[in-house]
Amino acid sequence: MSSTAAHPAAGPINRPDSTRHELWFAHVFRVAQALVYTGLAFRPGSMDWPALPQPTLSRFVALAFLTFALFALWRTRAWMHRLTLNVALAVTVDILAAVVQVAAMHDVRIGIAMMLVVNIAVSALMLPLRLSMFFAALATIGMLGQTFVALSTTVESDRELLESGLFGLAYFATASLCYVLGRQMRASEALAEQRGIDLANLSQVNELIIRRMKTGVLVVDEANRIHQLNESAWMLMGNPTAEQRDLGTVAPELSRRLYHWRTSGKLDESATALADGVPEVVPRFTRLAPHDDSHVLIFLDDTSLLSRRAEELTLSSLGRLSASIAHEIRNPLAAIRYSAQLLAESTDLNDTDLRMVEIINNHCVRLNEIIENILQLSRRERSRPETLDLGQWAQNFVVEYRQGNDLGNDVLRAVTSADPVTAVADPQHLQQVIWNLVQNALRYGRMPNEPARVMLVARNAEHGLPIIEVIDRGPGIPPKVAAQIFEPFFTTHEYGTGLGLYLARQMSEANQAALEYVRVAGGGSCFRITLTPPARHPVPAAVAART
């Protein structure tokens, strides 16, 4: 909450419009009240009424009060800064001026006392209850005090005393009533303002939802003109210009179907493309109001999204089915491999039979690797990202890989940047992906009769994103083959499973990273992983919750 909101009297911006109107009305009435005092005090000499026993005092007070009233009216906006103090000062001046004028112009005491009721009432709308009651009491004491002073000179003193008491009662009643009414009015105004804010926020949310919907939405009137459309509808109709509002010009087929629906009530649910190069859609129509065709709401369902969702469901089902089949295959596969191993130990086999047993064992190993990869894909856990120093991570990976694998004459080294390279990723997933890529590079990324030379490079890209690359100096991958290497079960090796790179890309995407193949100039291959950088300015939890 801001400081101005915490202190209501800090500035006019925090005051409702009704308070400014009340203050302005009080100042205008005070000017009119001062003009009445001035007119009575400066009456022509030919008029005997009202009697002015103290004309000098009456005229001085009238002019001073008129000056104060005009000054207050001129400073209305500035008075909003310290409203309570200024209103209290003004109503004090009103009471003093009224009491003095009642004493100076005794004949018009009733009219002056009645005008003071308005001053008390308006001030009660803007002041706390205690101050309102204080000024009502002050006005009552002033009127009663003036009456007691006049007891010795007025014949009808008892009647005037009763009148002053009744006016005092009216002051208290008016102040109480106006305070209650003002409080209820403030509460109603605050509630209406809050409801207006909520309604505006809801309207913005609805507009944002409709604008970002994947389903196209547009409103068409009875003249076939487009009134509103969201981003999806704009794209699905071929990106028409802002001036193109006629549906028959923008999308003739959609206009024809709308006319057919309006005239016959039948909906054509076949898919159609509304423009060249855009996906096919299935239009749906509905009226904005029952039995009113003046405005029609049109929904455009993108069939490619529906197909993609169906494909995702199918792949998910196939994944579960593949995992179940893999479990069922493992047991007979283990029995076949065990039998082949026992058969290989027999002394009665000739060379041809031994070769056949070797083929069986090799294919059993390959099938077992496929099953392990399928099971790994099906039970892959959710990524647990951490902030990693890629340079240090790459060096540690190379050390661990050398300790766990005999490289022989092959070379594996880490190349890091002098600048820090940080990224957000699951270290276990990244370990599996890089291990798979390094294995492939050491196995296939070598020239004939030469040792493999593989580099693990961690650096920042030109646009600041962290990347890690596995680079070899082998023959590279032909373009036709490179276009398919990430597809499942695609392999060029006799005993390959074709799932290694597919799994690597899946794990990369699970960490919001992108794995791609980049051909190296002069020979060689490069598998590049573009990772997500850590947030430089994290959003506080409280702010994120409000957002």
In short:
The protein is an alpha+beta fold and 547 residues long. The chain has helices at residues 3-6, 17-41, 55-74, 76-79, 83-104, 109-126, 129-149, 157-212, 231-236, 247-250, 252-264, 303-344, 351-378, 390-404, 427-444, 479-482, 500-510, 541-546, and strands spanning 216-221, 226-229, 281-289, 292-302, 386-389, 411-416, 422-425, 453-460, 466-472, 514-519, 525-530. The chain is 58% helix and 13% strand.
Architecture blueprint of SSEs:
Elements lengths: L2 H4 L10 H25 L13 H20 L1 H4 L3 H22 L4 H18 L2 H21 L7 H56 L3 E6 L4 E4 L1 H6 L10 H4 L1 H13 L16 E9 L2 E11 H42 L6 H28 L7 E4 H15 L6 E6 L5 E4 L1 H18 L8 E8 L5 E7 L6 H4 L17 H11 L3 E6 L5 E6 L10 H6 L1
Parallel strand pairs: 6-8
Antiparallel strand pairs: 1-2, 1-4, 3-4, 5-7, 8-9, 9-11, 10-11
| Total beta strand runs | 11
Structural class: alpha+beta
In total, the number of domains comes to 4
Arithmetic mean of pLDDT: 79
Q: Rg, please?
A: 45 Å
User: How widely separated are the two ends?
Assistant: 15 Å
* Biggest sheet strand line-up: 6-8-9-11-10
Beta-strand percent range: 5-15%
| Unreliable residue stretches | 1-14, 537-547
- Overall outline: elongated
Notes on the structure:
- A hairpin with a 5-residue loop joins β8 and β9 (466-472).
- The chain folds into four domains: 3-195, no CATH class; 213-305, 2-Layer Sandwich (Beta-Lactamase), CATH 3.30.450; 307-378, Orthogonal Bundle (Helix Hairpins), CATH 1.10.287; 386-530, Heat Shock Protein 90 (2-Layer Sandwich), CATH 3.30.565.
- Helix content is 58%, strand content 13%.
- The relative contact order is 0.05.
- The model is unreliable at 1-14 and 537-547 (pLDDT under 50).
- It has helices at 3-6, 17-41, 55-74, 76-79, 83-104, 109-126, 129-149, 157-212, 231-236, 247-250, 252-264, 303-344, 351-378, 390-404, 427-444, 479-482, 500-510, 541-546; strands at 216-221, 226-229, 281-289, 292-302, 386-389, 411-416, 422-425, 453-460, 466-472, 514-519, 525-530.
